[in-house]
């Protein structure tokens, strides 16, 4: 999406890549009407309260090489607060060994996703860094919008150690997925993806980070190439629209039991027409990431998650998506 602050309130917030995909499936006219109503340049009170109760947020940044990265910032609930509808203050920062950190700095564009796994709620907020002292930062809001709970696997969280106790564990960056990385990806039912576009018409960069979920193994791994099904969603096409306009993606996979983090960045492609799509149950299209950079950070997160004991979702029982 383009920068909402630079766009009249009643104008379409969608950029060319998003509009292309919306047009392809016949929802462009509807999205042109919906967009200005659901994409805000401020955080509603409900979203402000939501972020304040979270123990983590997902973040997307872009490093000086132009590569997007997705990662996780954690803290005791209340570490992310909104002092006013146009600002989110985050009392946390990426570790020195986290590739997210290279994309932080005054004026840098970022994407943030607030997601509560145990309730399956999520809200997105994108903007730019308005204050940064190396330990905390403020984000000036340019886009704020909600998402439905589709495809989120419900999990309860706990802390294995104080979140302020950092553990620098990153292994040397590589250009290849190893066997351990492939095993984590194949076992994952959840990951997060960062993408971005440069919008010369408004003189800004728009960064987005979003959630993807499916049955364990829904991401196919072929050597250094990841193939991901795209299921029916809100038809915004934030991620795939970005990848259509700018084929770069950053993904983060989490070992929810051990706190391990796997971050990858690479070249992306969107597959709209191929018999291969039918080999993924429920997929409407596919997208791929040709991994070029890999960072593994064992035990980097203090957070741990476990499935709900009392009400596993359809994902956990292997019945979804159909």
Throw out a few tags for this protein.
alpha+beta; 7-stranded antiparallel beta sheet; globular; Pyridox_Oxase_N; Pyridoxamine 5'-phosphate oxidase family protein; Split_barrel_FMN-bd
Structure report:
The protein is an alpha+beta fold and 322 residues long. It is 15% helix and 39% strand. The strands form 3 sheets. The protein has a 7-stranded antiparallel β-sheet, with helices on one face. A hairpin with a 2-residue loop joins strand 3 (80-84) and strand 4. Helix 1 crosses helix 5.
- Classify the oligomer: single chain
Query: Strand order within the widest sheet?
Result: 2-1-5-6-7-4-3
Structural class: alpha+beta
- Percentage of helical residues? 10-25%
What is the mean predicted local confidence, pLDDT?
87
Distance between the termini: 30 Å
Protein name: Pyridoxamine 5'-phosphate oxidase family protein
Organism: Achromobacter spanius
Domain Pyridoxamine 5'-phosphate oxidase N-terminal: 43-153, 177-283
Ordered list of secondary-structure elements with their pairings:
Elements: H1 16-24, H2 28-38, H3 45-52, E1 56-62, E2 68-74, E3 80-84, E4 87-90, E5 109-116, E6 121-132, E7 137-147, E8 155-159, H4 179-187, E9 190-199, E10 204-213, E11 220-222, E12 225-230, H5 238-245, E13 248-255, E14 260-271, E15 285-297, E16 303-307, H6 314-317
Helix pairs in contact: 1-5
């Amino acid at each position: 999406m383009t920068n909402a602050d630079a766009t009249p309130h009643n104008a379409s917030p969608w950029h060319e890549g998003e509009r292309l995909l919306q047009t392809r499936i016949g929802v462009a006219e509807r999205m042109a009407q919906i967009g200005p109503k659901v994409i805000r340049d401020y955080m509603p009170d409900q979203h402000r309260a939501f972020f304040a109760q979270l123990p983590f947020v997902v973040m997307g940044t872009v490093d000086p090489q132009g590569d997007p990265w997705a990662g996780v910032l954690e803290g005791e609930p209340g570490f992310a607060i909104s002092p006013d509808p146009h600002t989110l203050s985050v009392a946390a920062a990426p570790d020195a060994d986290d590739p997210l950190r290279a994309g932080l700095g005054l004026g840098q564009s970022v994407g943030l996703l607030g997601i509560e796994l145990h309730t399956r709620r999520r809200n997105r907020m994108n903007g730019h860094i308005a204050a940064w002292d190396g330990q905390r930062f403020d984000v000036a809001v340019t886009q704020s919008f909600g998402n439905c709970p589709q495809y989120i696997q419900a999990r309860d969280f706990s802390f294995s150690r104080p979140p302020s106790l950092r553990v620098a564990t990153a292994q040397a960056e590589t250009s290849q997925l190893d066997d351990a990385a492939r095993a984590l990806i194949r076992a994952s039912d959840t990951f997060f993806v960062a993408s971005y576009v440069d919008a010369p018409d408004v003189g800004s960069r728009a960064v987005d980070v979003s959630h993807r979920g499916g049955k364990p193994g829904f991401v196919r791994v072929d050597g250094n190439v990841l193939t991901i099904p795209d299921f029916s969603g809100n038809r915004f096409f934030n991620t795939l629209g970005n990848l259509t306009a700018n084929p770069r993606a950053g993904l983060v996979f989490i070992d929810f039991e051990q706190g391990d983090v796997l971050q990858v960045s690479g070249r992306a492609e969107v597959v709209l027409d191929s018999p291969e799509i039918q080999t993924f149950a429920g997929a409407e299209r596919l997208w791929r990431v040709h991994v070029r950079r890999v960072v593994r950070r064992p035990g980097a997160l203090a957070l741990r998650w476990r499935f709900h004991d009392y009400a596993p979702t359809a994902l956990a029982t292997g019945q979804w998506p159909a």
